[in-house]
Amino acid sequence: MDFTRVDIIGLSTSPSSGGAYALVLGEVEGNRRLPIIIGAFEAQAIALELEKIQPPRPMTHDLLRDTFEAVDVEVTEVVIDELREGTFFAKIRYCHDGEEHQLDSRPSDAVALAVRVDAPIFVAPMVLDEAGIVAEDESDISSLAEQAEETTGTGEDEPSGTELEQMQQKLEEAVEEEDYERAAELRDEIQRLEKEQQQNQN
User: Fold this and answer.
1) Using an 8 Å Cβ cutoff, are 141 and 12 in contact?
2) What is the DSSP string of 27-88?
3) Do the bridges between strand 133-134 and strand 4-13 make them parallel or antiparallel, or are there none, so unpaired?
């Protein structure tokens, strides 16, 4: 299968998903855009690297990059290869000891790593056909985010709920204030709440 090369067009706050952002990817050779709703922590991880801002302590994706480098693993590309029931799926492809491997990943984590190792980002044609939006106004990223919610839901299967939304808002504020230690604590608490929610649904 031939995949389509994309670049990061921008990040925008999501109109209705509390504490979430829209990551907008665009075809390198084309005018379709792919908005994906992601969490505040992952959005900040991508934004910091794009702006070349060095946080006081390494973020999770920095540690992953450093670990790969330490064990001589080369990330060759990341691929957003599936859209199922409104949720995007991705693969991180890498080479180690002359052999090719891949890891399952959320698109946000895959992209956050890709920008750190300068790896290309690709999207499966079927994903672009289903969720891609033809851009009429390059500057109107927020409208793409709104369309993304209408067509694909939340993007990375993030749970809703008042408590989680409040925690996401606090996380967003901590990141904006560059209080990364507090942000990490909030992220862990959000993950705990999400796990409890999943257990209650089963």
Assistant:
1) yes
2) ETTSSEEEEEEEEHHHHHHHHHHHTT---SS--HHHHHHHHHHHTT-EEEEEEEEEEETTEE
3) unpaired
Rounded alpha-carbon distances, angstroms, from residue 96 to 70, 90, 114? 12, 19, 17
Rounded distance, CA 28 to CA 161, Å? 37
Distance between CA atoms of residues 200 and 109, nearest Å? 26
pLDDT value of position 134: 84
Q: Give the pLDDT mean for 79-99.
A: 94
H or E element at residue 100: strand 99-105
CB-neighbour burial class of residue 79 (10 A; exposed 0-12, middle 13-18, buried 19+): buried
With tokens 């990341």, the residue in question is 78
- CA-closest candidate to residue 159, choices 101, 102, 200, 104: 200
Q: Does the pTM of the predicted model rise above 0.85?
A: no
